[in-house]
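Handout for the seminar on molecular recognition.
Each group receives one record of this type.
Step one: identify the two inputs.
Step two: read the structure output and locate the region that could contact beta-D-galactopyranose.
Step three: write two sentences on what you found, then compare them with the reference statements printed after the record.
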Amino acid sequence: MKKLVGIIVAVIAFVFFGELLANGEGDFFPGEKWFDTDSIHINAHGGGVCYYDGIYFWFGEHKTSGRGGNSAQVGVRCYSSVNLYDWKNEGVVLNVSSAEGSEIEKGCVIERPKVVYNKATGRFVMWFHLERKGRGYNDAYTAVAVSDKITGPYSFVKSVRPNAGTWPLDYSGVRDTLISTKKLEWWTPEFNDAVNDGLFVRRDFSKGQMSRDMTLFVDDDGTAYHIHSSEENLTLHISKLTGDYISFTNEWIRVFPGGHNEAPAVFKYKNRYFMITSGCTGWDPNEARLAVADSMMGHWTYLGNPCVGEDANKTFYSQSTYVLPVAGKNDAFIFMADRWNPSNPIDGRYVWLPLMFNNDVPYLKWFESWNFNVFHD
Ligand code: GAL
């Protein structure tokens, strides 16, 4: 009899805890391999998440093995989840093209894809950093693709150099595109002054501004913003997108000229806008930066490194990609970052950490593992 009761208790406990796990009572293990529901390490690097109809969709760069694995051999992959722990592979939603000369020809660079839903058009809009095949990082394009279904397929629309022929809203520099050809040595006071004054804005005025690391942010009123590293990665630009989210409005600002910020991730907390970025050291980690503003279009104030504790000066060996608001929880955000592996990019890891707050200012600390209990409601 005792044995039977024991077995029944064990079965109930097994079913109960199994259910809890299925409902998201799992744990995040930052930096560890993260397996999808087919037991394959998730392949969605430099990613972002779009929450739609009660489901999270994680979009990211499909990387491959070996040294060339950072170029786009496959495209953008998507995963879905209801609990943020268990991810189902939804396949490749934007495919590279096999057509020679295509802007998204296999072997190009497709980085940091972000997808947002446009309520007015009912379409899903993906923007990503694009470098055409064989041109290194010289194009500095941002590109857009759309789909009627969140899981694609996404059709390529166009690539752009943003804001051609317009000056930024906050611009006080020289409005003259004939820049001096005098070679300025980088990081000299003269160079810094010239950058501040819009040296590269002026240089790229006609062809459009450079756009490399990028993210999107949609405000509560439905306005979408494109945030990107520009001016040779020296200055961030924030641009308002059109109502359909597929073009630039030419309303834009510069943030921290000469500040060398990359990997922007933006979120809104208690009516203020926060942005986490990294410095520029390629695939190597560096110290993250935090900034705050009362409006997306500025003025942005630098608040320092949001990370605390051991390895805070390396962002816990990762680089920001997105800040994900957790649905149904007040003020709960997940910092999403990449731990790149340039010698075997497919093995890059994900560092997801909960954002903590101190006097309404976010900070990040390391957790070997964590779960939703760290959030208060
Ligand atoms: C990083 C950037 C990545 C990728 C890489 C290439 O700084 O954040 O998205 O562009 O450089 O070296």
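Reference statements: The first helix runs from residue 2 to 22. Residues 46, 111-112, 213, 262-263, 280, 282-283, 319 surround beta-D-galactopyranose (CB under 6 Å).
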